[in-house]
């Protein structure tokens, strides 16, 4: 194929391709407008979305407003009040937004209406911008600024076709606003989606922000962190997660994707108080000198470069360690849960061997013999796999249980967004959750096989897993609830071990627990003979080694 000569695109064609370098989705518009409002000193921010933001994004604030003499420049490219017109100012940024492209980019992608008035000014200005056309007129309005962006990408059909579904975009915007709430807890926040209030926060402290975003149970388990350049909260050791998705950092007021060094600093601050692989909840606001950070290294300004990252990490670790050292951290003894009945015998996976139990080690591991090899079975992981498959079979075989009294549960804004996205899917397998307003949901039905489980905080755990951020809520619910009643260390004896082996043999997928950990390990007699230096008949491959090919 022969390509034509290289040429420069005319401006009107280039604009259609690159319109709005900082605006590729409604989430970008929300971020840019919120940061403008924060830079204007707003103490009250209200965000409205319609149609997932494609129909309307509106941000209303009570900040300083734009003087009439400057309003006409607001939607021009590279017009900004946040940087002095010299190169040195780029190296000492003290605001959240500074490129002067937000309103211009929004006007390239949609239709912008800006109404603004400083408190000391008589009358307000209205700016309408679409593409490079800007109109300015006078109007009346309260002090502050309201920016409305309508019909995003209506003139850019290729960009419009690639947009996420409305529910998914609302979920992302809710998560974004939640992060701003966490890092700016002293402000009033409200998010309204298609006329429905999804997130509200009254001015308070970091603990109150955690309550608004993650609920009061989490807020009651956080400790205050106050140190030089580090402020916020960290969770007590009993409030942890397997992932780091609730570790939040800001640098000079900007929520950022933290470098791994900062996340590791928090975890190291806990030292032995955290089990391996666990992560706490934290909201930490870091303050550095303007010249010691570069906020312009990421298109969406979500990453900042720190001049002294090791020094900042050391301060974070020391601050977290000091906060933990100043509080009593004794944990309550968990209640032991009796094991559920194991599944009936019968091999469902032909590749799994017939195992004969030899003994129990440390009341957790089973030593078994099969195919001439020694097998070590993690009884908890094996029992968890058996329960997981058992629950999955029973869930579809029995009608759901309707609760005598619907239970009200507190949802975070992100969970509420996922509920609107997943409600039909959840109801399809017996879980009926209804939005009750004011951050609450009403639990009406639960799968019958789960309703009978003797698990602490059963309904809360079901809802948390069903509205988590995993791609398969049904699997997440079953995996979580299979873990709770599975045999723990100290609960295993020979009889229960036999039952676990029978249940594992009956599984369709017996090789790993629902969380991906192996259920069994195999030590061949040949490898054992090699370890003892034996040669001869004991050095001959047997069982799976004989079937897998020539001797090694």
**Number of DSSP strand runs:** 24
Count of DSSP H/I helices: 18
List unreliable stretches of 5+ residues.
1-9, 13-20, 86-92, 330-347
**Main sheet properties:** 8 strands, mixed
Radius of gyration: 29 Å
Based on secondary structure, the structural category is alpha+beta
Mean pLDDT, to the nearest integer, reads: 82
What proportion strand? 15-25%
Major beta sheet, strand line-up: 5-4-3-6-2-1-7-8
Terminal CA distance reads 52 Å
What multimeric state do the chains show? single chain
User: Which overall shape is indicated by the principal axes computed on the Cα atoms?
Assistant: elongated
Helical fraction: 25-40%
Protein described:
InterPro entries: DNA_mismatch_repair_CS, DNA_mismatch_repair_MutL, DNA_mismatch_S5_2-like, HATPase_C_sf, HATPase_dom, MutL/Mlh/PMS, MutL/Mlh/Pms-like, MutL_C. GO terms for molecular function: endonuclease activity. Belongs to the DNA mismatch repair MutL/HexB family. With 552 residues, the chain is α+β, with helices and mostly antiparallel strands. 33% of the residues lie in helices and 24% in strands. It has 18 helices and 24 strands. The strands form six sheets. The protein has an eight-stranded mixed beta sheet. Strands 9-10-15-12-13 form a five-stranded mixed beta sheet, with helices on both faces. Strands 18-19-20-24 form a four-stranded antiparallel beta sheet. α9 packs parallel to α10. The longest helix has 19 residues, at 379-397. It is elongated, with a radius of gyration of 29 Å. The model is unreliable at 1-9, 13-20, 86-92 and 330-347 (pLDDT under 50).
């Amino acid at each position: 194929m022969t390509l034509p000569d290289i040429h420069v695109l005319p401006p009107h064609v280039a604009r259609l391709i690159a319109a709005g370098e900082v605006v590729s989705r409604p989430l970008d518009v929300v971020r840019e407008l919120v940061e403008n409002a924060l830079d204007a000193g707003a103490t009250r921010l209200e965000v409205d979305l319609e149609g997932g933001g494609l129909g309307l994004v509106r941000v209303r604030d009570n900040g300083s407003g734009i003087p009439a003499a400057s309003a006409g420049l607001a939607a021009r490219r590279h017009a900004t009040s946040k940087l002095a017109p010299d190169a040195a100012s780029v190296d000492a940024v003290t605001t959240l937004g500074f490129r002067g492209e937000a309103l211009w980019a929004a006007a390239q992608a949609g239709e912008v209406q800006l109404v603004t008035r400083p408190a000391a000014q008589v009358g307000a200005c209205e700016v309408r911008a679409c593409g490079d056309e800007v109109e300015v007129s006078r109007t009346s309005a309260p002090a502050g600024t309201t920016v409305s962006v309508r019909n995003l990408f209506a003139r850019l059909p290729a960009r419009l076709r690639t947009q996420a579904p409305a529910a998914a975009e609302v979920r992302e915007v809710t998560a974004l606003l939640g992060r701003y709430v966490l890092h700016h807890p002293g402000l009033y926040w409200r998010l309204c989606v298609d006329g429905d209030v999804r997130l509200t926060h009254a001015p308070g402290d970091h603990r109150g922000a955690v309550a608004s975003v993650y609920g009061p149970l989490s807020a009651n388990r956080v400790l205050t962190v106050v140190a030089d350049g580090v402020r916020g909260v960290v969770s007590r050791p009993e409030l942890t997660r397997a992932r780091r998705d609730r570790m939040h950092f800001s640098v000079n007021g900007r929520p950022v994707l933290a470098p791994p060094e900062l996340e590791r600093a928090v975890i190291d601050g806990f030292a032995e108080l955290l089990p391996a692989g666990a992560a706490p909840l934290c909201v930490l606001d870091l303050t550095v000198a303007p010249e010691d950070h570069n906020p312009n290294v990421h298109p969406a300004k979500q990453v900042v470069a720190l001049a002294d990252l090791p020094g900042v990490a050391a301060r974070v670790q020391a601050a977290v360690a000091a906060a933990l050292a100043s509080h009593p951290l004794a944990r309550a003894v968990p209640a032991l849960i009796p094991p559920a009945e194991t599944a009936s015998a019968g091999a469902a996976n032909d590749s799994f061997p017939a195992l004969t139990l030899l003994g129990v080690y440390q009341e957790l591991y089973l030593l078994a013999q099969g195919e001439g090899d020694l097998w070590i079975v993690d009884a908890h992981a094996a029992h968890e796999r058996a329960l997981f498959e058992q629950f999955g079979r029973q869930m579809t075989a029995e009608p759901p249980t309707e609760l005598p009294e619907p239970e009200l549960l507190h949802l975070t804004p992100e969970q509420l967004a996922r509920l609107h996205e997943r409600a039909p899917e959840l109801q399809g397998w017996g879980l009926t959750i209804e939005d009750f307003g004011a951050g609450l949901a009403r639990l009406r039905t639960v799968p019958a096989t789960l309703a009978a489980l003797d698990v602490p905080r059963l309904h809360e755990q079901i809802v948390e897993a069903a509205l988590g951020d995993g791609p398969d809520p049904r699997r997440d619910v079953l995996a979580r609830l299979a873990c709770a009643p599975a045999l723990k260390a100290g609960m295993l004896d020979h009889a229960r071990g036999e039952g676990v082996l029978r249940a594992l043999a009956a599984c369709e997928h017996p090789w790993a627990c629902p969380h991906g950990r192996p259920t069994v390990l195999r030590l061949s007699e040949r490898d054992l003979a090699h370890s003892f230096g034996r040669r001869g008949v004991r050095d001959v491959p047997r069982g799976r080694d004989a079937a897998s090919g020539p001797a090694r």
